[in-house]
Amino acid sequence: MTFLWFYFTVLILDSSLTYISSSIVYTHFPYDLQPALWIVCLIKFFVLGIVSCKLYRPAWVSSSLLYILTMCLTPPLYQTLRLHLTSHSPELYSILSHSIVSHLTLLTACLLWDLVSPHILPKESSEEEKTGQKKNRENFIRLVTYSKADWLFLSGAFVFLSLALICEMFIPFYMGRVIDILSSKYKETEFLVAIFYMSFFSISSSVSAGCRGGLFIFSLYRLTRRLRILLFRAVIKQDIAFFETTKTGDITSRLSNDTARVSRAIAGNVNITLRSLVKCIGVYSFMISISWQLTLLTFLSSPFTWIIQKLYNHYHEDLVQKVQDSVARSSDIAKEILESVRTVHSFNAAGDEAKRYEDSLQEIHKLQSYRDMVQAVYLLLIRTTNLLTQVAMLFYGQILIEQGFISSGQMVSFILYQMESGDHIRTIVYMLSEMTHSAGAAQKVFQYLDREPLVSTSGSHSPDKLRGCFEFRNVTFTYPSRQEIPALQDISFTLPPGSITALVGPSGGGKTTCVSLLERFYDPSTGEILLDGKPLHQYKHQYLHAKVALVAQEPVLFSGSVKENIGYGLKDASMNELQRAARRANAETFILGMEKGYDTDVGENGGQLGAGQKQRLAIARALARDPQLLILDEASSCLDAETEHEIQKSLQGIDGLSLLIIAHRLRTVQKADQILVLEGGRLVEHGTHGELVKTEEGVYYKLLHGHLLQNGD
Ligand SMILES: Nc1ncnc2c1ncn2[C@@H]1O[C@H](COP(=O)(O)OP(=O)(O)OP(=O)(O)O)[C@@H](O)[C@H]1O
To answer: How much distance in Å is there from the Cα of 642 to the middle of ligand 1?
Structure first.
């Protein structure tokens, strides 16, 4: 009912006002109708404006004032244009019929606008969105500063951009000249001059456009490379907690997709937007200089082109994102299946897995078809709008040629310019939304660039001589990804220099966590870890990692030779040092037994070596850095008793080396100088093997008992 009430009130008011004001004005301006029309428009606007603001309007008439303004302005504007374009004298419109027609058109327009506007108009921005926009601007400025290193190439590119534009602008103009010369009395000199200029501008524009594109792409690749290096450096120095809480896929996507998108923002999008903007201005200047009436006519299609482009951007971007997501999902599925192919075969699930992959491909296909259909409809609509504009232009152009306002050559130039103008408007609209996305991508990249690792690496202490006494003093620690339960609670112990310490206890007791703290993967939540009386964080990061070496449960080897793996991270280790480390780790015999000895390739992740061989190589790698503390976290679990014994003997022979051993096989730890028993994050027992077995109700005793039973001993 709101709709009917609003519509009839405004209609009746408008008709009455038009009738009254036209009668009054007409009596004063009987011969000059144009000013009369504008005065009527003004009167109506004020009265209707005041009244309609008080009316209750339907939701889809976005603003009463805008509605009234459009309704009052359209008739005098139309009559004025008609007078100038066709020299027809203006008419005072018939009251009721005219009102009904104009209201109906306007209401239909409002309704249509209401339907499409949610997709093409930015929603009213909240406080959060406003700060987001501010952040986008800041990000953009920051990006410009990253491009500083390329200023020479970018300036060159902008010079060529301007040259190419200037030259391109003159080509249709001289084409029109040639047609004019050919269609009038032929003058050879004029014809040759026009042809010369046309060729000159064509060649110059092509050369300049080539140089412009080349320089922009060159700067784009340089910027992408720089951003990737910066981002990689920022990511790799992050603390372990960061990698535990961030998916690897997210990081790689930032590194590959977002950096490329961000670089495009400067060298790509700005380049294209500027080119289109300047060309648009140039093209329209030429068009106006040929005929302003025809130019006005071409503007009629602009709102439609704008709306179509906006709608297309909205749907297309959404679909492109969905296609990308489903492609990523599908490759994840393929990767997962191929990585666990043994399990797939053993459960006879090859058929099911193939079907799962096929379904994911089917989903991609469906989305791609939909995306292509949207693209086809878009092209159809754009081309139809263009065609209709050109038909209208040709009709009106023919009148102008007949009346002698323009020549046929100028008409050809005009059509050529007009064809270009549409492309540029579409590009500008597209690029504006693309820039918002680039700013979003930049935000994600900067988030990583700006992140300060939770574990600081700013320590500078690096003494020449170190005694090597490690001490846990009242250490409590909670994992950032599991805040509820502390993994270690009030732990205190000392690792004297040159001693062997064993950490034992039931699974989940906190052994590996102690090692992670010693390696400074995390800092303790409370308490301190000291090395020779100084907290670990005061030591230089590289120094500390040379002094504390870890051989983890599942050692990671890198593809490359045995030699490269032992010397990993050591820039100036000699071959002798590497061989000595291999001997100490009892690895030399098997290394020399391989075809190429130290130059043998270990394969991806050390895939060409057995588990025990991998462990020995990992121990050799740790020993090559000449550490003060060697941590063996289940590092000999795949070795036979004899080899394990050999390695231990050789390690004990290294002067000043402290050993921290974590092992479930209790025979490995029996000879330790001290055994620390951890349970539920607490240090529950402490002593030598002999001391601990005496406590029959103790955790160590039970562990040993269980272990002996398990081995049938
Ligand atoms: N990265 C992590 N994030 C959150 N919680 C963790 C993490 N690593 C270990 N924990 C938790 O901390 C506690 C101690 O684990 P830790 O790995 O140190 O025990 P452990 O004695 O080495 O066990 P295992 O002998 O099975 O290796 C456990 O409750 C475990 O679930």
So the answer is: 30
